[in-house]
User: Fold this.
Amino acid sequence: MNRTPLKRRFTVTLMLFTLLCCALYTVTASSFMHYHNAQITSRTERLLHALVLQRENDLANQIFVGHIRALRSTAADLQETDDVYSITVYDKSGKPLIHTRPERPLPLTGAEMAILAQGDVDARGTENGVPLLYHTSALMVIGELQGFVTVAYDLSHVRRDTILLSAMLTILLLGTVIAAGMVCSHFITQHIRRPLTALRDAMHRARSGELQHRAPIEAQDEVGRLAESFNAMVATLQRNESSLRHAQTIYRDIFENALEGIFQITGRGYLINANPALARMLGYSSVMELLAERGTTPLKSLVNRRDLARMLRMLRAKGAVDGYETRVYTKGGGITWISVSARTIAKEETGQPESFRYEGFVKDITEHRRLRELEQTRTAMIEADKAKSDFLAHMSHEIRTPMNSVLGMAEQMLRTPLSAEQKECMDVLKNSGESLLHLINDILDLTRVEGGQLALASAPFTVHAVVYGVRDMLSLQARQKNILLAATIAPDVRKNHMGDAQRLQQILVNLLGNAVKFTDNGEVSLHVSRAPDAVHDGDLLFTVRDTGIGITPAEQSRLFQKFSQASTAIHSRYGGSGLGLAISRHLVDLMGGTIRLESEPGVGTTVTFTARFAAVPEETARTGHEAEQPDTAGDDATALPALTVLLAEDTPSNRAVVRMMLQDTPCTVIEAEDGQQALHLFGQYDIDVVLMDINMPVMDGMEATRQLRRQEHGSGRRTPVIALTANAFQQDIIRYRQAGCDGHLVKPVTRKALLTALQSCAGGGATHSGSGA
Assistant:
């Protein structure tokens, strides 16, 4: 970098420029002087030629006649001419005749005379240090050579004039250069050096931090524009410094007020910086306390050793870690789970731990881990519950399928002539199968309730029909035990309500059934009234009383739990699964009510529950009730029209049951063992109704129904398809509907339900039937 001052550099440049000018002047002056001398010489030559020409004839004649005195006089006359140095006359042999100077000249050589014979000759020379111009001419008389004459002209005055002119020009040039240098020096001082000095001072002040100072601008020249650029740069620096200070303030605020911990550690794990959030996270009151206690010891005393070593290795290898979870020990000795995100901020090529430094963020994830573990537990529970539901659904299918054959065959056998002993055996078989089916339905209901899959229907119904229907259902069992079964409804209870009549019936059957089962003498009663704190007409109170064995207070707390009964002795004597009350409690909750039990051993039990229903006009309720009542004519086989029924069922025994149920009807049954065969037969025969089993090999019932609907597309015909299934959860029914089924029958299928479904299809309706579904 050149550190020479600008003034000196400019002076040197000016001097070099001056030298260049002088050199150019020398060359120019030399050329001029040469030209000037040439002009003077040429003029002198013409003058000498004229001078000789004037006396040439005289000199030639005088040589011709040999008049030496006259020749000398003529030479003397020529000598008198200004600046003529000497006159020399030669004869025709080149021998000097006359010479006006004391020195004797040399004779002419033959070569010189030969040249002179051709014309005048001019030449330069010196004598005694005097510069001379020699002019030699031949002297002729009547064309005959008589001799030669040489006039020497003194050029000393010409040299003097040339030197004087050169001196004058040199003085003029030097004066001009000196004047120009003085002017340039003044210009530099006034317009360059002083502004640059001011600019340099402004730069020094800016470097020392005085960014508010500006360089003065004296002119809009290059230096002025340089000063403007410098001032603009300083203004930018001032703004940047202000922004930097603002950013530093923001960063400091973020650092100090961040909710997450921020840290810096060395490559060996020593804490060198932290923010208040990290200090609080570790149980310290301030950063100073944290650094004072932990800044002099490795973090291995604060963080799990293996986790710290693994994290440092990852940082060295990858340069960063994100979401690294580990445990730290707080000041009080507790353990806090943290998530660390860090990066390498200093790294040298040595590869030693001292050459690394790291910074990052720390987040307290103790609560997050607890919630995550809870979520994992919840997920595991959901998966276990789903597995349980799937298992129960599978078992339901596997049990209902053979139960369909057992109960169907039992029902068909009871319709044939039997002996008393055979009828008793078939009754036992049918009742046992129905008990097993009831248990399956209870288990499925409980599964749906606990899984949140049980939704209540909302349809018009009459409370009177449900209550008296339950009473009639259990009256035979009560008469067999010689107990009184009564059902009453308060006058202020409206008949018409909106709700799920089937689930209300299920609750009442469970409660009244238990009351009848645990009562050996006395009575069982069901009373319905408006709830004491009723807000709407649909808030009802149901009270079931019995005079049975009663329940101790200790046993009452377990009654509404699943698979629980009052005692082992009661279970041994009366049996039961212990699911009825648990299911009833869940159903009452879904109906917006509560259930209570009061009992005294040896006296009896009173169970009350409330339920909320929406009230509807009596006409709507009657219409809905009539619609939900079973068609008593459905058991009449003669009421069926002649239908061609396609039965798709993979189990031969189930196909035999349906075939026997329809053997005394005008229906024709066409059997298929799987869905693919059913589609083939559907295309061959004019089918009126399809009974489609859902679970079949080769092609299941849902896929077969979808393809059947695609075959019918565009034909304008829709053949009723009734799904035969052991699964009747709400989501299952929706899937059947989406596949194209018009209704469903839940296995085991009774003859009455089958005939009712076929009658409904013949009338253009859909059917839904099932036990506990």
